[in-house]
Amino acid sequence: MVKRCTQYFLILSLLIAGSAYARGLPELTDLIEQNSPAVVKINTVDRNDVAQGGVPPQYQQDIPDIFRHLLEPRRRQQRPVASMGSGFIISADGYIVTNNHVVDGADEVTVTLTDRREFEAKVIGTDLRSDLALIKIDVKDLPFIRWGDSEALKVGEWVVAIGSPFGLDYSASAGIVSAMGRSIPNESRENYVPFIQTDVAINPGNSGGPLFNLEGEVVGINSQIYTRSGGSIGLSFAIPASLARDVVAQLKDKGRVDRGWLGVGIQDVDRNLAEAMGLGKPVGALVAQVEAGAPAAEAGIMAGDIITRFDGQKIMTHGDLPHVVGQTRPGSEVTVELMRKGNSKRLQVKVGALPGLDDGEQQVSVKPSTDVGGRLGLVVSEIPEALKQRWNVDSGVLVKQVTPGKAGAKAGLRSGDIIAQLGFDEVANMKDYDRVLKGLPSDELLPIRFFRSGQPTFRTIQIDD
User: Fold this and answer.
1) What share of the chain is helix, strand, coil (3-state, %, to 5)?
2) How is residue 369 annotated by DSSP?
3) From residue 170, how far is each of 35, 37, 86, 167 by CA, in Å?
4) Cα–Cα distance for residue pair 33/30, rounded to 1 Å
5) Mean pLDDT throughout 4-20?
6) Is 207 a catalytic residue?
7) Deepest of 79, 139, 358, 383, by most Cβ within 10 A of its Cβ?
8) Terminal Cα-to-Cα distance of the chain (whole angstroms)
């Protein structure tokens, strides 16, 4: 009898414990059912032609005419390169948010809805630094998703992702927030996104899809995974909604993103530096360099200062400073708190506009080309002085916009490239560019030299008038 009672109480205890555990897990079916119709699948096609072979122009004069035709570059039509990603609708009139890397370089962008309707999408604007893009389809009365407050997220909170991993439409996965404010530099070693880290299963194809809180609000945009296999290992990173909302609003309003700029080189503070600088613990961003004439220099910030607060926000590590400064509107006056030689100081700084964006956005006033697209399908302008100094380039014209399917796009040019030669003529400025462009022949392969991130590159270009 005692044994039977013991077994009864053991079973009862397990049922109670199991029920409590079940109550602790979130119910996700309604969230997924209600929000899936506003999540879209994005397919892109890149139809770039590539010229292969050939001899650099500087050596062509040494080749006898009888052999020259054998060494001319042969143009090979490549198969279109297709890729896919995810996105989500943010307004009933068809505005969609996704990642920049999902649509970057695409000649065609197609959006598929949950009801299997497909629409060609127009790219409204892209932002390389945050890896965000805004696109639009010409449809009305669409379901859309509400933005949430990513600042209110806490580590351990449940979150849900919906997207198209490996092309599997509208897959849902769930997990928890693992960390907040992760600093992950991009390819240009810039760091303007305080990523949300989660253990949600994110795989290729999820890029650009929404990350939901349990209220069904978007708190992040899935952007990156850390992997050695190509698949999920439980480390995924999302762009916070607080940053994304501002970027998207600017892209919709003006097609570019303005960011704050101090003009300092920074590093982290270790324990020894903290002790030497009179800090109780290693916090803040140590100023290693101040650019001449930059907002930091104008405000009196010096090398060796440790910035501990910017506009009232704590700077715990050096990676926090770009996040905060980048989201500050250019022209704003803010208070900077710092430590200098063991003493605390407060300075007023007028935040500048971040110059020299790799993706071609311009934060300074420049006179654009009157040749909108033109024969090459390129919108170009004079190069701002800040960009010349950054890439150590003396002359050329800056590519601001590339029209898909036109000669410039087929040659592989991107926004932010600096054209220095067209055909066999040097291009020093806009006047040269307009003059040379008028004289270029059609249906003939021509050399083009340009700089990308300061590195010179030769390719070929063909105008199809």
Assistant:
1) 25, 35, 45
2) -
3) 10, 9, 9, 9
4) 5
5) 52
6) yes
7) 383
8) 97
